[in-house]
Amino acid sequence: MLKCKVAQLVEQAVIRAQRGGLIPSVALPQITVERPQNAAYGDYATSLPLKLARAARANPLSIAEEIAELIVPIPEIEKIAVAPPGFINFTVNNNWVVQQVESIRSAGEAYGDINLGRGSRVQLEFVSVNPTGPLHVGHGRGAVLGSTLAKVLTAAGYAVEKEYYINDAGTQIDAFYRSLYARYRQALGTPFEMPPDGYHGSYVMELAQEIIAENGDKFLSWSPEEAAWELGKLGLDKMLNLIKADLKLLKVEFDLYFSENSLYEGGQYQRVMSELGERGYTAEKEGAIWFVSSALGEDKDNVLVRTNGTPTYFASDIAYHYNKFSERNFDKVVNIWGADHQGHIARMKAAISALGIDPDRLRIIITQMVTLRRGGTELKVSKRGGDIVTLREVIDEVGTDACRFFFLSRAASSQMDFDLELAKKQSVDNPVYYVQYAHARISSILRFAQERGIEPSYGDVSLLTSQAELALIRKMTQLSEVIEAVADSLEPNYLPYYAQELAADFHGFYEQCRVISPDRELSAARLKLVDAVRIVLAKTLHLMGMTAPERM
RNA sequence: GUCCCUGUAGCUCAGUUGGAUAGAGCAGCUGCCUUCUAAGCAGCGGGCCGUGAGUUCGAGUCUCACCAGGGACGCCA
Question: Which of A187, A189, A309, A539 is most deeply buried (CB count within 10 A of its CB)?
């Protein structure tokens, strides 16, 4: 990345300036290079002199001049300028810029990829919704976020594994099983009361109907416990398949569905409990076994094993994370959780440090709530309460691409309104279509050129000299910086904004520069540029899990 | 009561980790299609960045207090 190269040049120059006594030898902060907001300042800038000014007790402008003087010239950089109050600005050589068109075309789909991760293994766990009901919009948000992060981290050189943790054990599953059994009985005309803590949504009745259609009434003769268990397993399987189908509609897929139950069957749960005990982090109180998180600075302890002997969700989650770090040896683990899991973060981190694992290896992203609206009225999404608007209905109404783009455009930390009416009404003037339209236009030009026998490969990029052309190429060269920013921050919302900027630069170019003209040389050169834009735009769309349409 | 997230244009939201003149999309208004897609382009209007202090060369960004909205504080997950 040219940006890193510039940072290195600055660092070398500063060190030289300090050794030569031109500026005081104070400790250097992290050398950062950024893109100035105003293009008039050039392509890159550093505010290092401003940061050094205080410690060095010197005028930032003169520091900037001393440093700038010592920066070794490289062919890519055409101009280095000092600007008040103490910036050093870098302007990239236009020859280098136009050459990037060639680089893009030879790199193809790999263009923009970086090696930030150096192959280290990252596990991304997301969605992980209890298979006790259909997905709602909030789940969709985490799903889109996770699947996009997976793509970006892969592009950034990490070895990524996507995982869905199935909570197929515990009290919620039990409540689901008993609800399904009650609905089964009711559907067969043998009245049975719904459990008070049950799932009242109509989808449970539909599941019961399906099971009756496939298995008849044979469970009526079974004992309620056995019948609930068998029915439950059938229902859970169906529910999970529905969830997978919904996720597929959203273009979300996993490498592994990890069963909570397997932690008990595989012995991880037992191993973790004894290890926590050996390390002195468990205690028995009031007939239950507790994790002594207060010993690690938490404000209270948490139950691991209930009085009735069953483990809590927290206990199996510790076993799960032990499995991730100590048995599967992931370098880093990223979990995407809903806002309701906020309180779980601190104790989860405490638990893994209790197991001797560096808690910084675990990063947890909390997605804030999505409130679904239709116009002014808020729609309910609670699973337990009854009927909900499902994710599938939202996708059917709004479309996968628009859904994904919409979710990605908002930072995970912001709660958001998803207004179906608005999403549909705006769908024609949506930024989504603005970006995709650019790709369709490009495809159209390429078709047009092909019909006339104009080949992009013959193009001579040095003919690309107009402002619109250069600005467009400059924008393309930012892709790897965007990938880096997303991979570092785990905030993919840079992506949709970058896509819009790139599309805007293309549309601007399209208005100002006729691609296929009587000038065959220029036509070929511009066609080559257009083909490069196709590559970068499609890559950006694909990182977001969106389609790059050839016609609209 | 404690903890977490949010508060930026009429609306929905960005703001590159503390930098230069705070941006985009909708909505409103004015222009631009005999030529590769007008789902586009050019332009106009719109701001006490919740409030008040603090940190420093410099704050939308960091700290504290307060106000407002949301979430979590369970032997549910």
Answer: A539
